[in-house]
Every structure is written in structure tokens, then in C-alpha cells.
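Bug #77: duplicate submission created two jobs. Keeping one. Sequence:
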Amino acid sequence: SRGCRVTVVPATFSAEKVLALNPDGIFLSNGPGDPAAVTYAVSAVRELLGVKPVFGICLGHQILALALGGITYKLKFGHRGGNQPVQVAAHGGVQISSHNHGFAVATASLPHGVVQSHVNLNDNCCEGIDAPGYRAFSVQYHPESAPGPHDSDDLFDKFIELMNAS
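Kept job's structure:
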């Protein structure tokens, strides 16, 4: 709806193959399972950091955090379903979000220059990170599912701004 052309590539694509496509930005999508097991994606994202803008959601959020040097952990009970309240650190507002994940990013593990941008109001879990030095950010939830229905539109606008500024 924002005029972007999307090229989908396999999770196993190397950073070199991604860059050969000359994308304006890199969107890390959702997926199942333990993010620590997806070492090939973490390695590729690490090589892409700072080269192109990066926006991750769900598993993509976790992969971005790992690529930046953070760690993830298994939740005792995963976050599932809609109507999950998430607070945006920048302005204190609350967004209603949709979740389907069993792992989370350990906020205390985030390196210098990477900040928690969103927090789950049910359990204080990290729901988003921002790494402005790398032009990268992510959220744990599914902004594309629009449970708000427009609460998360600003995330897509931010990604487009980062791509346009590149």
C-alpha cells in the first residue's frame, strides 16, 4: 500500500546474494522456531548491517538482535493472539498488537547504541529495538496484521524514510 516492490528471497540467501539484487532496504520477516538455530541468517544480517536499512518483525526482530550481539531466550509461555498492549518508548503511547512467538530478546544483552524501543505491558518483555547507527530497527509483534488497525503504520513509514534517505 506504500508503493514498495518486494522481492522475496530464501532465508539461506547470503548477504552477497542479497546485495547483488541492490535493494533499497531489507525486511526480515517472521518465521517459526528458535532464532539461535538460524545461524546462517544471523551471519548474513550481520554483514548487511550498516549497508542497507533493515526492518525486522517477529523472528526477524530476534535475528536482528542476535546479529547486533544480543541474546534471545525461550519464554515460559509464548505470546499468542491479538490485543497485546505494547508501549512505545519514544512517546509513551500504547499500541495494540498481534503476537505469535515463543522466544524473546533479552534487553540487558543489547550492546551500546542499541535501545529497546517497545515493551510488552503484560510482562515487560522487549517488543522492539532501534539501532540508529546501523539504520536498523525491529519489533517482536506483527505490525502487518493491523490489530490496531493503524497503530503500527508509523513503522512502515519509518522504514520507507530510511530507504529514501539512503
